[in-house]
Amino acid sequence: MSTRYTVETSVGVFVFVALLCIGYLTIQLGDFGFWGADSYQIKARFNSVSGLKAGNVVQIAGVTVGQVEDIDLNTDEFVAIVTMSIKQDVRLSDDSMAAVKTSGLIGDKYISISPGGSGFSLEPGDMIIDTQSPIDIEELVGKYVFGGAENGER
Predict the structure, then answer these.
(1) Residues whose CB falls within 8 Å of the CB of residue 120, separated by 6 or more in sequence, listed in order
(2) CATH code reported for the domain at 39-134
(3) What pLDDT, in 10s, does the model give residues 97-124?
(4) Rounded to two decimals, what is the model's pTM?
């Protein structure tokens, strides 16, 4: 009985340690950031964010510097408020511009930030006001097909 109990205990301890290791790797590779904040959150106000979703990347000059955390609707002004998590070592000025872009012709949406040069940094929780919504390809095709592209109407 003693040998069987020792083997079962050893297997149980091994499985427990393996699960702890898998959990640790999942947290580290998933950038959950439970141990120390290595990023800060800023917000941006857009008229439209069609196709953008939480988890999409935020880039500056083609380099990933964060990700979209949340997208909410401001029901007072009917605009989308996008919350982004930005790496701690990336400081943005208050005149930065954010735009929703598409990677490739029909690829995923992402946010591209063009840094400003005012010298005043955005603090965590601040809002980027200067934004550009994504181009609606369906609307452009519709205008072209129905002849409204030349005179600006549909």
Answers:
(1) 93, 94, 95
(2) 2.40.30
(3) 999 988 877 778 899 998 888 778 888 8
(4) 0.65
